[in-house]
Amino acid sequence: MRARDLTRYCRDIGWTDPPALLARITKASYEPKPQPRWETLDELAREVESCTRCRLAEKRSNTVVGEGDVPAAVMFIGEGPGSEEDRTGRPFVGQAGILLDGMIFALGFERRQVYIGNVVKCRPPGNRDPREDEMAACSEFLDRQIELIGPRVIVALGRVAARRLTGTDKPMGALRGRWTSYLGIPLMPMFHPAYLLRNELAKRAAWDDLKSVRQRLSGVDSDSRA
Ligand code: SF4
């Protein structure tokens, strides 16, 4: 009902103060709804488990929120769960996960000492890339996750995560190895471990990027582009 019609209707039924009624209705309709504020990762994970905000909820077997230490010095963020992750509910399992473990070790950590998550928490069917609207629907979870984990450095794994977190559509070759930031936290885009398994030559670049992350963590920032 439009405001003018409502004013007329109020007068017809004898309401003597239509402006006050309008003010109340308008306030109730347009006041921004408070955003959910998950206080812990467990609370957030429970919300994710029942989430149907995007179409990826339809075919998932399990949500994959992420796992690791909290707070963590490093948070790795991939694009989304694959088939094994969907089956187990854990991030980066399988061959790519084994290589990621090696990369983590090169930084001087074990897997349980860092945090590993994804941009979207449900598997895109057929392992396709997550779509823009799916990443947007899931972004509130990711951003709050990052806040709760409080990493000193974020590592974006692969083109999709790198583009999502840098807010660009540049090719991976232009993104990797260059410090930027996300939510005020230093961000290093790197090749995805699954890509490294197929491209032996890219491992050299990945090693350089890991060295840069290690230097940043130890306070020896050779690159101040962030
Ligand atoms: Fe919800 Fe994210 Fe899963 Fe979409 S991908 S259903 S937004 S948890």
Topology:
Layout: H1 3-12, H2 18-30, H3 41-49, E1 67-68, E2 74-78, H4 83-88, H5 95-106, E3 115-118, H6 132-149, E4 153-157, H7 159-166, H8 172-175, E5 180-182, E6 185-190, H9 193-198, H10 202-217
Parallel strand pairs: 2-3, 2-4, 4-6
Antiparallel strand pairs: 1-3, 5-6
The protein binds iron/sulfur cluster.
Low-confidence parts: 25-29, 222-226
Query: What is the CATH C level class, in words?
Result: Alpha Beta
Write down the Rg.
23 Å
> What level of helicity do the residues show?
40-55%
- β content, as a range? 5-15%
Derived from helix and strand composition plus strand pairing, the structural class reads: alpha/beta
How many structural domains can be distinguished in the coordinates?
1
CATH topology: Uracil-DNA Glycosylase, subunit E
Termini separation comes to 51 Å
Helix and strand run = HHHEEHHEHEHHEEHH
Ligand catalogue: iron/sulfur cluster
How many helical elements? 10
CATH architecture: 3-Layer(aba) Sandwich
Would you identify the CATH H-level superfamily? Uracil-DNA glycosylase-like domain
**Widest sheet: strand order?**
1-3-2-4-6-5
How many strands?
Answer: 6
Biggest sheet architecture: 6 strands, mixed
The shape, in one word, is globular
Average pLDDT for all residues = 89
In short:
The chain is of the alpha/beta class. It has helices spanning 3-12, 18-30, 41-49, 83-88, 95-106, 132-149, 159-166, 172-175, 193-198, 202-217; strands spanning 67-68, 74-78, 115-118, 153-157, 180-182, 185-190. The protein has 10 helices and 6 strands; from the N terminus they run αααββααβαβααββαα.
